[in-house]
Amino acid sequence: MERVRNIVILTGAGVSAESGIDTFRSAGGLWEQHRVEDVATPEGFARDPELVLRFYDMRREAIQQKRPNPAHDALARLDATWDGELLLVTQNVDDLHERAGAANVLHMHGEHLNAWCTACDVRSAWTGPLINRPPCPECGESALRPDVVWFGEMPYQMERIYAALAECDLFVSIGTSGAVYPAAGFVREAKANGARTLELNLEPSQGSRWFDETRLGPASELVPVWVDEVLGE
Ligand code: BV8
């Protein structure tokens, strides 16, 4: 394997599955008994803000009871010791990568532990519920929403992601079904720029054919083995 210098890693719900956080597809297309369009779209929020706020309050509370698993720990170890460029992009809105010690995590779909004020546009760290419409720490308005990218909304820091994909020699996708865009298209972007592409997943994803190599199994087993390989290289 020619010397790898710049790595981009994309993680999805599968990397947090063994920490006890439900993936989106495991619930047979329903997501915690809700349809995505009712709880993860701006239209759904406008239609029934209480339903959406309760949905996110429940998940924000739940993730704070969970712990990182060996996949998060291994990625944090790679982040701390890799001597080239490393960008860890996650589709997940939990903070398990950070709690495992990863330093530069890019949450392209936002974060449960932030609240976004629709009055002053400021984002604040937030661990409690939003259902009782608490005042924004910045402007005092009761206009806080989850700082999460809903379907139809633009994911965060896309330019930074595409710049890293243009420079990377290795793109690794971990625990994602490849169902949601633009994240699902990153492998093609990396491949077009000459990077090698590796997928670590419990089952083949919708984009498996774009990967040079796919390893099937639980992230808590596959990720530490891969990190040892790439550090030992
Ligand atoms: C946008 C935050 C444009 C919310 C999320 C038609 C065709 C193509 C695209 C579209 C289309 N119609 C609409 C679109 C665009 C849409 C889209 O892609 N829809 C899909 C459904 C077709 N995308 C968007 O809307 C995005 N925005 O396009 O904006 C735009 C342009 C200009 C201006 C404005 C806007 C925004 C998408 C972001 C939505 N928000 N999350 C929240 O979390 O509450 S997405 C959410 O679902 C997750 O963040 C994640 O991204 C996605 C689920 O994917 P995964 O993470 O992969 O999880 P999943 O359950 O699917 O898979 C888990 C995998 O893990 C499985 O493969 C499983 O086998 C594996 N696994 C399980 N256990 C383990 C494991 N692997 C390893 N170990 C294990 N133990």
From TrEMBL:
Q: Where, in this chain's numbering, is NAD(+) bound?
A: 12-31, 91-94, 175-177, 201-203, 219
Protein origin, superkingdom? Bacteria
Q: Which reaction(s) does its UniProt entry say it catalyses?
A: N(6)-acetyl-L-lysyl-[protein] + NAD(+) + H2O = 2''-O-acetyl-ADP-D-ribose + nicotinamide + L-lysyl-[protein]; N(6)-succinyl-L-lysyl-[protein] + NAD(+) + H2O = 2''-O-succinyl-ADP-D-ribose + nicotinamide + L-lysyl-[protein]
Annotated SUPFAM superfamilies: DHS-like NAD/FAD-binding domain
Cellular localization per UniProt: Cytoplasm
The family database entries (Pfam families) matched by this protein are listed as:
SIR2 (PF02146)
Q: What is this protein called?
A: NAD-dependent protein deacylase
Organism in which the protein naturally occurs: Croceicoccus marinus
